[in-house]
Write a structure and sequence with these properties.
By secondary structure, this protein is of the alpha/beta class. 45% of the residues lie in helices and 15% in strands. The structure holds nicotinamide-adenine-dinucleotide.
């Protein structure tokens, strides 16, 4: 059955071929949603949207560009009449040690992961408020919960922990308007974010820390996003959902 029939969803950072965003877009489309993919590269965003079928839209958008984000969302709301679902998935990471984080590293990682999540949410909250309905899903990370230890540096952990705080504060403030806000904390999922950057030693030590003994797949994260976006989770807000093969059992 289609869980998102007739719904309109915006997914950021969803042009990456093996990424969590595109896997989520595919599953949402399969469940009846119309999708807009926002990503840095226009051609990649359009190609990803075309792969989903007709009616889906791909647009170039840098999530840290406040006015650009607003323009894109306004254009979508003009076209669709509303936005029901936002998945703040765009993110970058850098494997740095604490003393090696430069001002530029800090800005880049904090901005895309955290500022981008804020700006994209601000751009859809008015239409969701008008409709008294909406679901916002933010990609955090197990790195936020356990202080890294997988790939990203301390600035990435801080940004993703910031996403958790923002998620909970937005959930609290937006609950009276029936807008739910939740975070997904993926563990290690094999995508291009780490592709070619992990040594065999790093990979085996990561696997050793996962009770299920293997990395996750993008589809396994998408399933959780579908749950949080749809009415299956109608009474779930302000939560952080672990999708990590047991990496954080405590
Ligand atoms: P990915 O690198 O495959 O995809 C990230 C996408 O974000 C890319 O398409 C990229 O172009 C886009 N992007 C980057 N900066 C952007 C910006 N300023 N504006 C718009 N788009 C931008 O990565 P992924 O593994 O699919 O990661 C998706 C999300 O999940 C990220 O937020 C990441 O931090 C998070 N995450 C991933 C893992 C993992 O193991 N793969 C684990 C935990 C969390």
């Amino acid at each position: 059955t289609a869980l998102l029939d007739g719904q309109y969803a915006v997914i950021t950072g969803a042009a990456s071929k093996r990424g969590l965003g595109l896997a989520t877009a595919r599953l949402f489309a399969k469940h009846g949603a119309t999708i807009a993919i926002l990503d840095l590269d226009q051609d990649a965003a359009k190609a990803a949207a075309a792969e989903l079928g007709k009616n889906h839209i791909g647009m170039a958008c840098n999530v840290i560009d406040h006015d650009g984000v607003r323009q894109m969302m306004d254009a979508l709301i003009q076209k669709w009449g509303r936005v029901d679902i936002l998945v703040n998935n765009a993110g970058i990471t850098q494997p740095l040690k604490i003393m090696d984080i430069s001002a530029k590293n800090y800005e880049d990682v904090l901005d895309v992961n955290l500022r981008g999540t804020l700006y994209c949410s601000q751009a859809v909250i008015p239409t969701m408020r008008e409709n008294k309905s909406g679901s916002i899903v933010n990609m955090s990370s197990v790195s936020a919960q356990r202080g890294g230890g997988i790939f990203g540096g301390p600035h990435y952990s801080a940004a993703k922990a910031g996403v958790l705080g923002l998620t909970k504060a937005m959930a609290r403030e937006l609950a009276p308007d029936n807008i739910r806000v939740n975070a997904i904390c993926p563990g290690f999922i094999a995508t291009d974010i780490t592709a070619g950057k992990l040594t065999n030693d790093m990979q085996s030590s990561i696997n050793a820390g996962i009770p299920m003994g293997r990395p996750g797949t993008a589809d396994e994260v998408a399933g959780c996003a579908l749950f949080l976006a749809s009415d299956l989770s109608a009474y779930v807000t302000g939560s952080e959902v672990d999708v990590n093969g047991g990496s954080l059992i405590h």
